[in-house]
Amino acid sequence: MDKLEELNRASEEQAVLLLEPLIERAPVIAQRVARRRPYKSADELRQAIRSELLDLNEEERVRLFRAHPELAPENPLSMTNASQSEQGRLNLTSDTNEFKARLDDLNARYRDKFGFPFITALVRHEDMGSVLAEFETRLEADRESEIEQALEQVTTVSSLRVEADFEYDSSNRTKDAAADIEMRPQTSGQAGSMATEDGNPQSPGTPEAEAHSPLGWGGEIGGAILLVLSIIFMVGGWQLGLGVPTRLGTGAFPFISGALLAILSIVICIEERRGDGIAETPDWVAFLAICAALAVFAVAAERIGLVPAAFLTVIVASLPDRSLPFRGKAILGCVVALACWGLFIELLNLPFKPFVGL
Questions:
Q1: Which residue, 56, 278, 320, 322, could crosslink 8 as a Cys pair with Cβ 3.0–4.6 Å?
Q2: CA–CA separation, 198 vs 86, rounded Å?
């Protein structure tokens, strides 16, 4: 299994770990890129990273830049392995670095002016002369253009790391496979192989052969479970009573939610069957959190009221999301809770109590 295939088949958590070295100290970007899988080529992965980086607003870009190390930092071991390698090639991690004093001065001037460290794709520089020349030139730029330049350098570094980690791995694997085929005796009835549409032998271990094996039905299983849950919601809503369009009953909300969930689950199953055959491992932790959140809402809405129930539902559902701090989850919970109050009680006039016991 080459590295790209490993990335496609990994869980989201494992995929983030594989992607983090490509994007300097940016786990949120790595998570977003992981969610865009599967990738058919290293170039597609490179374009996905670039797209996510370009979508960042100015505040997010500056935050990303500040996670990058300066050139020749005081503690080189604090850098990622990739940065240590890139800076080490130009002797910037060594105590004998002859450019240390000049770089310290340039780093301080640059950070004072722009508010983030100087970033450049060191692999594009043959020696320190070109690095220092670029450093001096960019110090004369305005902040807006320098933010664009720094982002371009980040995308360049990420692209080169993708090329080094994924394209090199894939090309070597292809060469090894070709050499193996040339040395393998050709037989008409080779055991354990299948023919592809172009007539070439296909190993049972390839993605095409494994695509719809019992182990490759992760997405369909998740979709089926969602469909069962949606039916339960719809049946429960029907039993509670749907009411009429001008006066919705207690069961209208769970029935409509169940119907939307059913449509979503069917779409998931269809898309999984129409995909390119890369089996994805479902995020069971997130799935269980959503199921738990639905259970919390069903129990809490009647006992403590719609507003606190909606708040708790958001908190429980968002627990697996490590990219959002708890304060952000609490704010989101408050917004959703107030929106539920306004929509379901004030606008739709559903028989929910905002708070019970108050």
A1: 278
A2: 43
